[in-house]
Amino acid sequence: MTTKRELEELEGTNGISFVEHNGAAFWLTLDAGRKSLAILAPTNYHLPITFAGEQRALDNDRVLALCPLTPPNARALRDALPSLKPTLLGLQTSVGFGDRLGLATPGHVRALKNSTTKFAPIFAQQSIREMQRTNRTPQQVLDDATFGAFEAGWHDAVGADADHLKTTDDIDACVAAGYSFYTIDPGAYVDNNADMLSASAIQDKVNALPWQELESSPQDFQAQYAGRTVQLETGEIKLSNFLLNRAAAKYGRAIAHVVRMYRHLAAKGIPFELEISVDETETWTSPFEHIYLASEFKRLGVQWISLAPRYVGQFEKGVDYIGELDRFEADFCAHAEIARVLGPYKLSLHSGSDKFSIYAIAMRLTRGAVHLKTAGTSYLEALRTIAALDAKLFRAIYA
């Protein structure tokens, strides 16, 4: 077998990507100026999966295959090299990188390798909304992340986040592509007006909830929760009738939607992790409402690994947290305690790009059970690079 050192001397070969597995060698190379996947194996060697490409016999003992970076070859590469196949990450600290361009994963890998803080990466993370705006598909996002991680020599576990899914068709497309982490976004079903309604108006909304889907009734709902006290690590929260009704009016339809989506996904029979996101709403999620959400999901059999409430303050993309840090810390502390008492599950920071002032708070209060989602950072850094190298192009983008 050719050694890694010999391959690094070949013109156009990326030695960082070189990996040997099950008797074959894999690396990224330039063939006629285009990136290709190179596979070197003994002539009598049969790969467990099929790659499509041009085969060149080097000698009597070895054959070299040069394969284009296509979706079938990306899937074959994930099957051949287990570290590239999205897997379950559990409760360990994790970060989603949100590469909208499909070019940034090698840089993300280099940053990870140079980091003193260890966490599990999700290189493939893009919402359906962003895919539509950038004319990409779930398969393209995953394949770009696969080849990028391979190119930069990533050999540890990775996840793949099918982000902000709103329909069962979205789920189907991401299951077909091979994702492992599914973020359900029921924001369209959250009633933001509930925080400002009278008790009688709230009761009308509660009575009109889809109780059959919720497998309950207004009477059973009150009987189950009213008067109950949830003991946290630093205090307790008593569930009052009015606050329960307001939480149900605000989130009841969203819960029903999550249950529909979860059961559709669970019926696929694949291993997966679920995140529930209610962060893209107009009003913040109180600790009381967090308890209601988590309790209802548990009652209805939903299993999730991460929850993204709407925290106090403002989370704008690409800039630091906007708000009072003391207030954020007090609010986040309550959410972290609830996640431990009713879980455990991770708390997720969405639109987390460049929120440097709250990272340490989140890590400390969750004891590492946190998931960070970034999307704007790589895109803004790409714009910064373009501005430095091609001002005319940058002006066209800005226009």
Cα end-to-end separation: 54 Å
Strand content: 15-25%
Low-confidence stretches: none
In spatial order, strands of the major sheet run 6-7-8-9-12-13-14-15
Number of strands: 15
Gyration radius from CA atoms, angstroms: 24 Å
**Number of continuous helical runs:** 15
Structural class label: alpha/beta
Instruction: Give the quaternary arrangement of the chains.
Output: single chain
The largest pleated sheet is described as: 8 strands, parallel, barrel
Global outline = elongated
What letter string, H or E per element, gives the SSE order? HEEEEEHEHEHHEHEHHHEEHEHEHEHEHH
Helix share of residues? 40-55%
- Compute the average pLDDT: 92
Provide key terms for this protein.
399 residues; alpha/beta; eight-stranded parallel beta barrel; five-stranded antiparallel β-sheet; 42% helix; 20% strand
Q: What's the structural blueprint in terms of helices and strands?
A:
Blueprint: H1 4-8, E1 13-21, E2 24-31, E3 34-42, E4 54-57, E5 62-68, H2 71-80, E6 94-96, H3 105-114, E7 120-127, H4 128-134, H5 138-151, E8 159-165, H6 168-177, E9 181-184, H7 199-207, H8 211-214, H9 218-225, E10 229-231, E11 236-238, H10 241-266, E12 273-277, H11 287-299, E13 306-308, H12 325-341, E14 346-349, H13 356-366, E15 370-373, H14 376-389, H15 391-398
Parallel strand pairs: 6-7, 6-15, 7-8, 8-9, 9-12, 12-13, 13-14, 14-15
Antiparallel strand pairs: 1-2, 2-3, 3-5, 4-5, 10-11
Helix pairs in contact: 2-5, 7-10, 10-11, 11-12, 12-13, 14-15
